[in-house]
Amino acid sequence: MYGQQGYGQAPQGGISPEIQNWFTMVDKDRSGQINYQELKSALVNGQGEHFSDTACKLMIGMFDPNKTGSIGINEFSQLYYYINQWLGVFKTYDRDQSGGIEENELAQALQQMGFRFSPDFIKFLIQKSDLQNHRVMSVDQFIVVCVQIQRFTEAFRTKDTEQRGMITIGFEEFLNIALNCTT
Amino acid sequence: MYGQQGYGQAPQGGISPEIQNWFTMVDKDRSGQINYQELKSALVNGQGEHFSDTACKLMIGMFDPNKTGSIGINEFSQLYYYINQWLGVFKTYDRDQSGGIEENELAQALQQMGFRFSPDFIKFLIQKSDLQNHRVMSVDQFIVVCVQIQRFTEAFRTKDTEQRGMITIGFEEFLNIALNCTT
Known about the structure:
Mean pLDDT of chain A: 87
Oligomer: homodimer
CATH superfamily of chain A: EF-hand
Strand order of the largest sheet of chain A: 1-2
Largest interface: A-B, 41 and 41 residues
CATH architecture of chain A: Orthogonal Bundle
Number of helices of chain A: 8
């Protein structure tokens, strides 16, 4: 191949052999489609565990507009670069290279994404991810949290037309947003 | 044993041998504690699949106030009856005994729990559960949806002090409720 494929950069036309190989490896039942279980068995986080069901469903769902529950090679190709981008972001903030992001690292990451959350909220996010020790967030949990926060932000902004940082909302609508943004 | 243990009824004092046997079976690593993976490997839904990670984390979390990620036999005993209660509710609404609840069955279940949702919202709940066919909800998904809706209802009511069915809420608070009520 000529040149170097940029980190997290989408491929320019066609499916690279690298992606093709990955796809074939992940598509265990040779259906030509990848579902979340297949994706899960291919992805391991810095804690030596497979990515969570939630993370895999979320990521498949992002490239599966018809909600079939699985994606073909073209969508996989996009997903592949998407995951690599997140891995890049994660590594930037995981300064001690521990494979997990800690409280201060997460606070910094979210701040640089433009969010101003209270220390309690950051603690809450970590606690929710690391049920046992309340200390670190793995890369798959980081992806889930970032995607959910982004989705909530968009949903919130749609309602917050005057940009007051406050919205008035009914119960079903509230439920709908909350359940729609989480997987 | 004397008498018959009522369906979904909490045991009166002590741990029954039935619960003890279950606990020993589920606690594969003999740690004296059950985590969500152990629970998952013990529970199968009417579709012949294991309960989802989400359902198992949610249920462990309900009986794990210290957020250790696992529960002992006393909490397991409560969880055991709790799951049986949900199975009972599910079977009541699964009129055709298909092992899955369909749109009209779910609408009826939620209505009898006191919720008035639009048909679109019911469709959305089913779609979210059955990514492939948009038709049925399994028992573990049903438990997750009901628990989430209950939690959201409580969180919403706390804010909706005048019972207008509408609340005004800021972004972090909104995120906090949404992420807290979902697992």
